[in-house]
User: Fold these one by one.
Assistant:
Number 1:
Amino acid sequence: MTTRRPDDERAAPPDWQRRESLLLAPWAMHAADSAGRVHDELPHAFRSPYQRDRDRIVHSAAFRRLAHKTQVFTGYHGDYHRSRLTHTLEVTSIARTLARALALNEDLVETLALAHDIGHPPLGHAGEDTLAELLTDEGGFNHNAQALRIVELLEIRYPHFPGLNLSREVLDAQATRKKDGTAPAPLLEAQVVDAADSIAYDTHDADDAVELGLVTMDELLEIPLMADAANRARDRYGPLAGAELRRAALHEVVEFEVAELVTRSRAAIAALGIESVAEVREVFRGQGGMPGVRIVAHTPAIAAGKRALEQFLFQRVYRSDRVLTVRVPAQRKLTRLFDWYCLHSDEMPPSFRGRVEQFGVRRSVADYIAGMTDRFLDRDHDLRIGPG
Ligand code: MG
């Protein structure tokens, strides 16, 4: 008797393909047109290639560790604020709304959103800056490049190859985030995730900052984007103050930015006569002497409003004493632990140790440390080097 695996392609016709051709626009990336994977795999009976990619991200160790990685604030600051994982889930939620409204491939969008931050090391941007400095002579460190290293090399889930063997379109989208000009022009699915990332962090960082007392609501309301949102919230709910006003106003900002983005993107698709993925890419690169454009982009007025909010957050939050006070000792710990592992690379787990010959000790130690959560780094530092 022969056994039949669920991924035997004779088991069922691909329902997902019929579903996509019914629901997706011609400018969406259809999974049937995927350029495939580096390592050939049998098609799955009922999951599309991008559904499988999404599941591979969710089941990866790097994804789970996002729960204990800093977004902006660390565990020292309490437990109201976002972690890297909850940020990722907010981005995914917004990105799926945008994708559905624009008839894009939601499975692909979900994959890209869930994966977009998995390359972040512990301790947020403090960790990234420190690793970048430590690796100056080895080509630096960047979380977008690291995300690719994770999905192509560092995650070990299959017996026959390293990495997650994701679809080409997922790798390309992550490569465009490196912004080094080597990747193909981004699909609309990738553009949607970039926009959702920016909508999510602007608003949730403002929310966290007020909750943690770094800025007051009155200060936030001096930013026109926030003031307008507060006015709309009051129109909708009547007089509001305190935490009620904060929640309602920030909800309005998200709602407003998403709605405007949908309207503007739909209009751009129509005006440019976009009818294929190839045309999305041509328009991004620019053609016939015309400059390239992102189809999923805010109006200049909203973009300026967001910039004002981001400048405010940069000065008052990301560079605030409360964030920087935690940052300096954390960077010192990371550096000490990095130096320690460079001298004791045999103490790393076998998979990291095993890459030293190919990639050098400093890059391999960086791979190991970048994968740590904030609290693992803390504990490991105290174990290896001693507290203080
Ligand atoms: Mg992000």
Number 2:
Amino acid sequence: MAAVDDQDALKRAAGVHAASYVTDGMRVGLGTGSTVRFTIEAIAAAGVDVDCTATSVQTRDLAVGLGLRVVAPDALGALDLAIDGADEVDPALNLTKGGGGALTREKVVAQMAARFVVVADESKLVDVLGGFGTPLEVLDFAPGAVEARLRDLGAASVSVRDVRSDNANLLVDARFGATITDPVALGTSLSAIAGVVEHGLFYGDTVERVVVAGTSGIRELTR
Ligand code: 5RP
């Protein structure tokens, strides 16, 4: 139990730190998960005057409940900043995302943002992506065909979650093991599979910084 509490404290530290990047007048993309939740709470507590868009229904409900102004992405057009969590971060700041199932909306919002800041506790740092599994959002049309293509690409196992995405699609986890040394190459192959709506590999060149909280404090990873 103590370990869980410690991890929660680290998530809070990273999440709160990243809220300092949010200033009056910004258009801000709000990510999804238990780390960025602390960012969203800190933004609301700071009382900054910002326009937000959310990467999930869960985040929208949280932010609206805290009194933040939340609108659809297209109502803002472009974003000054997006802040989100990650399931894995490699040394080149490539990410695995989608543990919470929001990967497609998260990627849309990240791509809209001039700056993409990631918040994580140090347990998310890995040498090579893939140990967590690779989440995908998949059309509910021929998931068996998609699974076969994923196995062709080297997935040792593929499972479908019980819950669907906010877009009513399937959420699938493909397990390639901690072998993803070239996330761009694998991501390109995953995107080429018809029926894959989106994959949870986010490329390091889209990430401005990763705010990492560890037992020795906060550090910021940049490329
Ligand atoms: C949701 C995500 C989350 O950012 C990721 O799962 C990290 O979550 P947490 O901060 O709860 O560990 O990608 O789809």
